[in-house]
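Let us practice reading a record.
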Amino acid sequence: MDRFSWSNGLLEIDETLVIQQRGVRLYDGDDKAKLDLGVALLSTHRLIWRDVKNHECCIAMPLSQIILFEEQAAGIGKSAKIVIHLHPAPANKEPGPYQHSKYSFIKLSFKEHGQIEFHRRLTEEMTQKRWEKTTASQPIPTGTGSQAGRTRAVGIVGIERKIEERRKETDKNISEAFEDLSKLMVKAKEMVELSRSIANKIKDKQGDITEDETIRFKSYLLSMGIANPVTRETHGSGTHYHLQLAKQLGDMLQAPLEERGGMMALTEVYCLVNRARGMELLSPEDLLNACKMFESLKLPLRLRVFDSGVMVVQLQSHSEEEMIASALDNVSDKGSLTAEEFAKLLGLSVLLSKERLLLAEKMGHLCRDDSVEGLRFYPNLF
């Protein structure tokens, strides 16, 4: 304990608090110190202990005094401890609670637990030895002594100064991020205009480009974005906005639906549309309201709700009989299928595959076996 010096408990310049733990009692070797329970603070430079009741009672010791340390497990009626072995006290050490001690080690007794994390943090600091990086240019005192009048960024003032510096840095980063975002939006509009120009050239020179190349390039254009997305700013709000949005969705979704067998889950449609719209994102509510207007506008699409509540967008030309026949044929060929297996065969989502199987079951073509292994469908031989 004679390695500790009296301290005001304030952090020095370049010193950072690492961890603090309440309910810690100090031992001078194997003997309890004449100090009550307190708070143990570990910084990058020092081990600090402060009395809970008397805040003026605060002592500190440089981490450079530590030789090694070890954990001492808790026992019956005994708290877990960290035993810290120390170098001899230096000759010029400032005054502390103990002038002399017969022990070369101290113990930290943790009455309220927390010793595992404290030991881990102490191990990190002793490995990194961050106090050595500032010792040469700016020594860190352990007490108040003759150097107490030196200018320091400590206490509330120092904390407020650090908070203000971090706030300014955060504001700067946010400003730069939004500048980059604005530039990205400008470039995105340029790319959309370019894609529309190239699409028009493809139409003019249709004979010079194969059908496969046209389809592939159109899919690239779709992933780039919609040239002029319908927004509330351009088309107002309410019914008129949803009508115009429905017309645009009708033009946009027809090709993707044909590629996916004539049906897509509304969640897939939502992701596809918002990816194409870029920065002009669409809300789920607006998408649903627009899809409900497909049939009234006599568009080639319609919104369908299955008995389970799953919503899909499908082509008007999509034949329900063909969908049921496909499910029956695949189940008959394989003997039985789960929704996951059926999804792999058709390249559809598991959700839509299950709805197809349930529809075929509803029409009496399939029957189910619902067991601990999952839901499996069989041809209905009854």
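A brief commentary: The radius of gyration is 37 Å.
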